[in-house]
Amino acid sequence: MSFDSLGLRAELLRAIGDAGYTIPTPVQAQAIPVILAGRDILAGAQTGTGKTAGFTLPLLQRLNAAPERAPRTFRPVRALILTPTRELAAQIEESVKTYGKYLPTSSTCVFGGVNINPQIQALRRGVDILVATPGRLLDHLQQRTVDLSRVEILVLDEADRMLDMGFIRDIRRILSLLPTRRQNLLFSATFSNEIKVLADDLLNNPTHVEVARKNAESDLVTQAVYLSHRENKRDLLVHLLVEEKIDQALVFMRTKHGADKLVKQLQQDGVSAVPIHGNRSQAQRTRALADFKAGSVRILVATDLAARGLDIDQLPHVINYELPNIPEDYVHRIGRTGRAGSTGEALSLVSGDEQGYLNDIEKLIKKRIARREPTDFHPAPVSAQSAMSSAPRPYSRPDTRPAYPGQRTGNVPARPQRPQPYPTSGPRQGSTAYDSSSRRPR
Ligand code: AMP
User: Fold this and answer.
1) Please, are residues 285 and 306 in contact by the beta-carbon 8 Å criterion?
2) Of 249, 250, 296, 347, which residue has the fewest beta carbons closer than 10 angstroms?
3) Is 24 in the pocket of ligand 1 (CB under 6 A)?
């Protein structure tokens, strides 16, 4: 199928051609005709599926098919796109500009953490399409610096994450200020009961579009686990950058503090790295992303929330320096690579205290992730204290059980039959430090 057959107008096809896209992704093929027909949709699509163009292209076409007759000096907001994070808001607005560059449509985006005044000025000048995070949009509504009474199309993007972030009350307040007659598009990676209730209230006889199975991880991403002492992860990461010839990678940490610490350590090791997380100012986050995209920084160290929605073309590597404690976040993390048809690799450095997280992830994705061992890696000795808590447990009990019902497991020996690469010193496998019965981390 080609974009021409979807019924998009010439200006949009030209912009798509400039972006280098030749074939619509499945979500685009399904959603574009439905949205063009003016119908509501409920779409199960994760980031990386091309969903942004899936709603932006038909939205631009619909707004331009029936141009608002208001004088050009006053442009009421005609399409509102709500999204959970600042990064996502900025990226969606970038997409609106990219795809709408041959059309007269105007847009802006508003999000918190930055001065509100330039946003007020942009809104005062008038925009057709407004991309917003819920909190900052409510600030504007309270200050009466935005008028939503003429909204024709509403998009809720990453609705599940907006609810996870506690935005439901803000969203409902915003919805109450919109005209009742409008087109609604709801995109969500997962469908909890809360999402279903919201969809029932919001959508009018929607068409369902489902392109990625719930919690399915992309086939295009190769996944591997390296078992390591926590103390050795820093050296292992630097080793893998060389061994695996990794030019650039997005590295995940569980905490902001951990992300800052790793950035300092990598810099000490001569690897250029910048953090991206909620304690960084918007300017710092934008700069970090721009430097990473431009290739002037090798490693972007992120927390889960900050990374949500990051759109980096051709990102070949995601590295989980720490596993997430919520298994779904693993799927979101590795979804940063292998996007829109390109292949990618997701490597996880897993210490003994993270074995429980790994088990939960494997249960969720219904497969065992391949274990890899680094070649020629000689880590420094670890302290006995650390060895107690963070030793890798390649043969620990949970691995002998199926990751999901029905999985074939075979007879995995309870104790190692061959020397282990980690650590080169410290307690031996089979000693108390490696006791496979030690408690799970949670
Ligand atoms: P999204 O899921 O909207 O975050 O998009 C993921 C990535 O896919 C973005 O980098 C888009 O630029 C890219 N993309 C979107 N549509 C296509 C397409 N039809 N062909 C190739 N790449 C695309």
Assistant:
1) yes
2) 296
3) yes
> Could you tell me if the CB of 308 is within 6 A of ligand 1?
no
Whether ligand 1 lies within 6 angstroms of the CB of 51 is answered as yes
290 against 119, higher pLDDT: 119
Residue 84 in contact with ligand 1 by CB distance below 6 A: no
Q: Residue 340's CB: how many other CB atoms inside 10 A?
A: 17
| Identity at 200, one-letter amino acid code | D
Distance CA 348, CA 305 (A): 18
Structure confidence at residue 379 (pLDDT)? 80
- Confirm if 273 and 230 have CB atoms less than 8 A apart: no
User: What was the pLDDT predicted at 339?
Assistant: 59
With cut-offs at 50, 70 and 90, classify the pLDDT of residue 308: low
For 7-61, strand residue ranges (E) read 41-44
* 18 CA from centroid of ligand 1 (Å): 13
CA of 325 to the centre of ligand 1 (A): 28
pLDDT band of 285, cuts 50, 70, 90: confident
Ligand 1: centre distance to CA 51 (Å) = 7
- Here the tokens at position 435 are 């006791």
Residues 136 and 177 in one domain: yes
Task: For residue 91, give the ligand 1 atom closest to its CA.
Answer: 4
Domain of 129, in residue numbers: 3-210
**84 lies in the same domain as 193:** yes
- In order of 188, 328, 330, the CA distances from 353 in angstroms are 32, 19, 17
Whole-number Å distance between alpha carbons of 442 and 440: 6
What is the total count of domains within the chain?
2
Task: Choose one of 154, 181, 210: the last residue of a domain.
Answer: 210
Q: Residue 59 is part of a domain; what is its CATH number?
A: 3.40.50.300
Domain check: are 280 and 318 in the same one? yes
For residue 334 the two structure tokens come to 């590795």
Q: Tell me the pairing of strands 344-350 and 79-82.
A: unpaired
